[in-house]
Give the backbone structure.
Amino acid sequence: MQIIVERLALLAEKIRIQTEIDSYRVFHGRGRTFPGLEFVTVDFFQPAILVTLFVEPPEQWLDELIVQIHPLFASSNSVLVVQHRYMPNAPSEIVWGELPDLIYARRGNSLFNLHLAQQQNSGFFLDMESGRQWIEQHAADKRVLNLFAYTCAFSVVAINAGAEKVVNVDMSSAALNLGRANHQLNNLAKSKSEFVAENILKSWSRVKKPGPYDLVIIDPPSYQKGSFIAEKDYAKVIRRLPELMPTGGLVLACLNAPELSEGFLKQQFVEQCPHTEFIERVRPHADFPDIDPEQQLKLLVYRVPPSAA
């Protein structure tokens, strides 16, 4: 517990001296680099401190943590939210403070709408920061296809980095509505983005129509019954790449499934799109250490040559 208290003490000092703080993971226990704390993560979305418990903690553990950290934030307007992910519907409780009606993830000059304490996922994945940085470096002047776009954070980053246009595809209209709101929040030109609410595996003609694309982002759920199961469905996306980008381009293939290895994803490319060239695995963000790289978020970069079309 002491390491969490120490990390939060550093956060409290940041709050004291900085007006605006980028959202970040304060403590990552899930990577098993802190024995005995595998069940907890701590995130900061100013002014909210989000403690997520993935299994029920030891008796009195949470009470003791609250007693130790509350004085650190007594003079700030911080809010402590605890999410019990191990319980049905992942309920959240506000331990102290008042959660604003509108709360955002901050990334530099960009803001992203959040729905803390309302559902399991906040609407912004901090562990994908390495992917956002990669997009920032490669999106300029590109026509980008953002598959499984969710709330379209990749799109906001790509447009800010100079993308010609981003087409966001997700089967959830509600998620894409949040994506539109994120674009409006960041004052992005409407002409730079398009939102397609379709089941990707059943609507390739509509996905293909706004193309061709120079850069494709694949960021699916690892297991979403009835819509996408990575182990059997990822291949169906990869085999479509040549027709989506007939003049070639780059692919950022994401896989957030600890049970599936980097080798699994590479094999899908070998079998489904053999002309692609593996470029690199993007290094996971330092805020998310893990004793086993195969358990971490996989971000693989491939080049699709024009000849693959």
Summary: The chain has two domains: 2-113, 126-308.
